[in-house]
C-alpha cells in the first residue's frame, strides 16, 4: 500500500502538549506502515494565524525529530484549488449561495419551533435552497453544501480507535458552509480538497475533530475523492478537565527535554515507556511498539 499520512496544524499559536500527541501518532503510523508523512499548514483562517507561527510549529516538530518527507503545503496558497472544487459542486447542484445571517437562521429555526441551546449547533434550515426560493434578491454571503439530494445525510464510518461511528449530518448540522461570509474558505472544504490532492490514505488526528468526519466523507463522495481511513487520538486535558487548546491558553510545548515531551505524548497514546537519549533514537525504538499496538482491531488506548 502506498501509505500517505499527514499532520495538519493550524498555526494560530505554537504546538502544545495535546498537538504533539496527534503529530506523534500520525508520524508513528506512517513509519509503521513504511509510508510517507506530510505536514500541511492549515492557515485558511488567516486572520487568526500570527505571522511566523508556521515556522515556530515546524521548528517544534523538528526539535522532536519529526521531519516531513515533502515540503509542507500552506493552505493560504491553495485558494484556486478550493475555488475549483466549489465551482464543480455548484455545477453539479451540490452547493448553493446563502444570504442568511446567524440571526436569520435562529429566526427560521424558532419559527419551526426549534429552540436552540446556547453553544449548540445551528442546523441550517435550508432557507436559501434553490427550491425554497434561493437568495430571494438578497446578496450572497456564504456558500453551502447540500446535504441531502444525491447524497444521503446519514454517514457511517469506521474509526481505528473508536470503532463504528455514525452521524445524521442532515439532522445534526444541515447544509454546511464551504465558503464563509467573511470570504474565507471553510475548514471542511480545504481539508478534503487538500487530503485528496495530497493522496492522503490515512488520517490520524485528535478526537476533537472526529465529529467533522461525516461532513468530510460527504464532501469526498461529492467530489469523487477516495476515502481515507481514520484514527482519532485521545485528547490531553488540562487541570480543569477541558481539552488543552490554544483558545483556553494551553502552554506551548516544553521542549527543554524533547524526549520527555515525546514520552508524555506516547503515554497518552497508551504506548509503553521507552528510554532514549535523542528524539531520533526514541522514535526509532517506538515505531515497533506502535506497530504492535496496531495488530489489535481496535486500539487498546484509553478513551
Ligand atoms: N487544522 C486542524 C487543527 O489544527 C486539523 C485538521 C485535520 O487534521 O483534519 O485542529
DSSP helix fraction:
25-40%
Number of helices: 9
* Helix/strand class: alpha/beta
Average pLDDT value? 91
Spans of 5+ residues with little confidence (pLDDT < 50)?
none
Descriptive report:
This protein has 303 residues and is an alpha/beta fold. 34% of the residues lie in helices and 15% in strands. It has helices at residues 17-32, 53-63, 79-91, 102-111, 169-172, 187-198, 213-222, 258-268, 279-293; strands at residues 4-7, 36-41, 73-74, 95-98, 142-145, 154-159, 163-168, 176-179, 202-206, 229-233. The strands form three sheets. It has a five-stranded parallel β-sheet with strand order 3-2-1-9-10. A three-stranded antiparallel β-sheet has the order 4-5-8. Strand 1, helix 1 (17-32) and strand 2 form a beta-alpha-beta unit. Helix 1 crosses helix 8 (258-268), helix 3 (79-91) crosses helix 6 and helix 6 (187-198) packs across helix 7. The longest helix is centred in the first third of the chain and has 16 residues, at 17-32.
What descriptive keywords fit this protein?
single chain; 303 residues; alpha/beta; 5-stranded parallel sheet; 3-stranded antiparallel sheet; binds glutamic acid
